[in-house]
Amino acid sequence: MDKSAHVKDAIDEFRANAQDLFKKLSDAMAKRDGATKADLEALAKSAKVVADSARAAVISQSDAVKQCLTDSIASLEKARKDAEDGVKRSGQGFETALKQVLLDVRAAVAKASEAVAAKRAGNKKAAA
């Protein structure tokens, strides 16, 4: 497997991990009693792991892919911070934090998808 294929796989894996993070949060919020502080703490840890996994892939990318990955990482870092802050809140403050984390993770997934698309577009140009 060449380096390009490995990097493509890393970007696809990053996007899949970000999507999984979004699904877990959505599922936790949809539970009968809603998401708990433990759910939010786990999400904060997972967001850091997913963001860290993307940092290695950023180095060898085109500018367009780098920008998308950087934006996605920033959204995950914001989600982590919002989750950590949300754990300290209760009632409506906790619910507001949950909604913000969901929006942050959704933005991260969108940017990760843009990175995958930019990478594929770059590969098509190189092959042409």
Keywords:
mainly alpha; Four Helix Bundle (Hemerythrin (Met), subunit A); 4 helices
Write down the CATH topology: Four Helix Bundle (Hemerythrin (Met), subunit A)
Q: How many DSSP helices? A: 4
What spatial form do the alpha-carbon principal axes imply?
Answer: elongated
What is the helix fraction of residues, given as a range? over 70%
| Beta strands, count | 0
Point out poorly predicted stretches: none
What does this entry look like structurally?
The chain has helices at residues 3-30, 37-58, 63-87, 92-127. The relative contact order is 0.18. Helix 1 (3-30) packs antiparallel against helix 2 (37-58), helix 1 (3-30) runs antiparallel to helix 4 (92-127) and helix 3 packs antiparallel against helix 4. The protein has one domain (3-122): Four Helix Bundle (Hemerythrin (Met), subunit A), CATH 1.20.120. With 128 residues, the protein is mainly α.
Topology:
Layout: H1 3-30, H2 37-58, H3 63-87, H4 92-127
Helix pairs in contact: 1-2, 1-4, 2-3, 3-4
